[in-house]
Amino acid sequence: MLRSLGQVCFSGFLLVLLAGNSDGYQQFLSSSIFRALPQLITSQGGLSHANNIPFVNKEHDVYDDGLFSPLEDLSILSEAEFTHMSHPAFPHYGVRIKKTSFCDNSVKSYTGYIDIEARHLFFYFFESRNDPDKDDVIFWTTGGKNIHSQKYHYTLCPFRSRMLFVSGSIHGAWYDAIISDANGTKYFPESWNSNANVFFVDQPVGVGYSYAEYGEVVGTTEDAAKDIAAFVAIFFENFSKFKGRAFHMSGESYGGRYIPLFASEVYDQNARLIQAGLTPINLTSIIIGNGWTDPPSMVLSYFDMQCTAASVAPVIDIASCVRMKQVLPRCEKWVKESCTDLYDAMNCYAALQFCGAELAEPFAATGKNVYDISKDCEGEPGDLCYPVTAHITAYLNSTATRALLGVDPSVRSPYTLCSQPVALAFDATHDRERPGTPFHVAALLERGVRVLIYVGTYDWICNWVGNERWTRALEWSGREEFASQELRVWEVGVDSTSRKRAGRTRSARGLTFATVEGAGHMVPYDKPEEALALINRWIAGEELSPPYFGRFSTRCEIDATSMITANVADLSDKIFDFVIIGGGTSGLTLAARLSEDPSVTVAVLEAGENTIGDPKIAIPGQFGLTLGDPKYDWSFMTTKQKHSNNKELMWSRGKGLGGTSNLNFFVWIKPPAVDVDAFEKLGNPGWNWENFYHYSKKAETFHRPGKELTDLFPHIYDVDARGTSGPIQYTIPAHVHTVDAMLQKTFSNVGIKVLDDPYRGDINGTFIASSNIDPRTWTRSNAATGYLLPIQDRSNLTVLTEAFVSRIVFADNSDDQDLVATGVEFTQQGNKNTVNARKEVILSAGAIKDPQILEHSGVGRPEVLSKIGIEMQIDLPGVGENLQDHPFFTISYELDPSVKHPTLDSLKDPENAKEALRLHAEGKGLLRTGISSFTYLPLSMVKTPGAATLREKIEQEIEELKNTSGIAPGQREQLDIQLETLRSDKSPDFQFLPWPALFPMSSVTPGPGKAYMSLLGFLNHPLSRGTIHATTNDPLDNPELDPNYFEKDSDLELLVESFKYLRHLAATEPFKSGIVGAELEPGPECKTDEQIRDYIKNTVSTAWHGVGTCSMLPRDKQGVVDPQLKVYGTKNLRVVDISIVPLHIAAHTQVTAYVIGEKAADIIKSAYNTIP
């Protein structure tokens, strides 16, 4: 019975629905299908196909083009009769083709036969509704097999496109019109030919309107693949305007077996086409919907689908589920041994028959629809649970329809949903249980053919559980990257009012898996809007679930509310396994990784708002737009800097989900290996470059720069040094290539090496860096969009915004043991609340807030706690000490107006800024700009007169500091490493970068229409140390922040020498010719060392790279946390952010913050034995 176990009747009839356009017919005639017809070599009655295309001139594998003229002009075709075509290279093949007004008259459509001697395949071709002359081409074929519960006999069911298109519902993806009742076809707005040309073939011979003169049939998918490959070649050879067009092969249901083999045959056939002087097929992707690709995975998944809530609530009684659960191990073992490990046709058949009976019979008894578990099976047995199929059958059997389509009079039998003779032929060869189909998928992926597997979540027969299992287990080079990804939500809709969740997806290196929620076996029938969005994004090369909704969306509106809340009742007085203070860069990284284990619960407290999707954050090129704005920025102020002419500086830090990853300037740079290895030297085993490199690649996905950029600048990079499946998307962005090229060449001319890739632990030299900008949307990729949004439906993670943490709560300690953190006290809207922690509290509030929160919790220096009236819980003098930052200066220039420099200066004009926003919405324009040209140099490469003597001076100063009485514990060890760094060329002392405009702090008034550049010079390893401490017991008061710039005069002297070096650079070509006149700031009047010193002290800026205030050092070396990031004196309190960095690195700190979060997650999981 159909309803018993159901049928895997597949999607063929859907494609026909696609309605075409007359131009489509023309394209078909000029396509390779027409020329390659001879390749449809066939076994009549089971004979095997020849291995090669039967070209006439096989000795030379060429043919005389003069003997063949493609029929390019489709206007000559008749609707009343077929036009016959042939090709001398394919003497055994012919084509009959005609116009038809089938379905949608707004597009051109064609039907016909490919004649392979005595066998004849019927086809349809529908042109794109959008742009037939440019749009991709999609091949669609029927699905195929029925499973009858009584004997588990599979029957091929020819749901060809025509059926689908007519019914408009059941298997269709391509259909242009639908048949929903007895009145014929109706226009279908969600047809897949909305943006693609689609053709469909009734195959194999014996299904649909295809026929054989002597009744022969094809019995294996391998044989059917030969026919299809030949058809495809002929199509493109005859419709030459389609040559080179992206080609996608698709199918549903048993198409999961067909399509991988068909595509493999097309791919392998290309070599023979080239040898014959023909154009190869541009096979771009395969698309499988609710596919039967890996029988073992599918059969074993039936337990999950009916006995768990994988789709709907369990539909089988408990006793049956227990019996099924008990038989599962036997089935898994038997199927693995006989079907997977070593294929034995009879034994595999027996295993699947037995397991199918055990796992499917109970479902058959429910009367449920095997194609949609949420519904009962309706209609008569022959209706396949869908009464509408009766209308389809009637329509396709009508004399008028047959005449309209040009069905050959030889096809006398009535149209039926399933072909018993073809089914028996396939059964005789055990085609359905043959192994290896996933291997074809893997082989296609390895050859650059993209693969989309989509599944309706209500389908039982070819369900999402089984399809997800085989895709994650697929053996190919991208397996680890693909399988390690979380399923993330994808959506449809054009704005926040229409947007809705469509399903979940994961994607890596060309393989995409996607569910369509609420759809059954026939996704385009159940969810046409979602199906069309899915296929349109796929053929456009877009991610189903980009970090921001919508391609190039200027608004970047995100609905991230499922577990992100501002309702304190969701956390107050509740208990979670882990409570994380701070929803910033490291905090969200950690939260995402810890909550991968569904058995643990995680809460995140963020003081700022949910700013995800805010265009001020999302859109690049608006550097500094959020700085100083209290919605986004804490805007901390330093004390007056006594060594810098009492200058006060604003230290911006991100407020809101994503933290400072919302505010930074997109710089994605990894430190030199020696700087990271220094962490380990200071007493932290495992904190070295090797581990850093591993975790940095885990955090990132690199996107190669597009042709638009490589045409402007010859980018060099090593893909092997980049991560390919992490949450943070990054690329070499659009940049001011004229300025970068000028600077790169100038540095090269003064002897600085040009690095091919700076991401392998060596950044000494000049290079083009990447930015954490997602080139698919040209928007910021950060902790919120990369780590949080993809898991927003995770039920074990709760994120509370606008929650200002006051202190960490410890259990009473009467026996002088290490303290146990039991929760966190926070305020929201003036009300005090507490959230409780079962396992750990983790502090990730950043280098400024971490020490303040610890001190308000009674952890810190006794004198500080006493001063603010806080009872001491733990004497920990290192809290708030060892603060280090990267100070920098700027020099400004006007650029040569004869060269068109696309600098950021133009955005100061409101009209230009408005136009830039418009262009950004199209993925174009200046707002894609990143800061990319970087140069890192050791002191030895700064060839100024004072550089050599300066090193000797600093060496002497360091030795004196080490011998100073009262030096802070741990400082000697740090100074030893800094002295080693100064003497070595492995870790650079300076960083230089060009800012493509006047820097925001500049005092120069820009002239209209002029272009400017500012050179920035940074100090990487300062000797000066600062502090951050609470000054009151009110948590709402900001702490006192004293970076103590230039406390050690050598820091200032180093910047003076780097300043003079940049001036020397400005006198070197091509820099010299690229600027107008003398520098604008500070100007030529600033000449002496003393004047330069004064200029730097007056204008010094912070790079906002503060580290060290909770240093990871031994406790007796003024450490705050140990190598496991646990706060000394506590059992379960950790610090996870860049405040733990004990000695500054020669790099921007963003990547390091992600690495700390990633490594901390594994440390914590290991402590609880939850690492998979």
Automatic annotation (TrEMBL):
Q: Ranges for the Glucose-methanol-choline oxidoreductase N-terminal domain?
A: 654-677
The alphabetized UniProt keywords are:
Carboxypeptidase, FAD, Flavoprotein, Glycoprotein, Hydrolase, Oxidoreductase, Protease, Signal
UniProt signal peptide: 1-24
InterPro entries referenced in this protein's UniProt entry, alphabetically:
AB_hydrolase_fold, FAD/NAD-bd_sf, GMC_OxRdtase, GMC_OxRdtase_N, GMC_OxRtase_C, Peptidase_S10, Ser_caboxypep_his_AS, Ser_caboxypep_ser_AS
The GO biological-process annotations, alphabetized, read as:
proteolysis
Q: Which cofactors does this protein require?
A: FAD
Which Gene Ontology molecular-function terms are recorded?
flavin adenine dinucleotide binding; oxidoreductase activity, acting on CH-OH group of donors; serine-type carboxypeptidase activity
Q: Which domain of life is it from?
A: Eukaryota
For this chain, the family text in UniProt reads: Belongs to the peptidase S10 family.
Q: Which PANTHER family match?
A: GLUCOSE-METHANOL-CHOLINE GMC OXIDOREDUCTASE (PTHR11552), GLUCOSE-METHANOL-CHOLINE OXIDOREDUCTASE N-TERMINAL DOMAIN-CONTAINING PROTEIN (PTHR11552:SF201)
Protein name in the entry: Glucose-methanol-choline oxidoreductase N-terminal domain-containing protein
Organism the protein comes from:
Tricholomella constricta
The root-end lineage is: Eukaryota, Fungi, Dikarya, Basidiomycota, Agaricomycotina
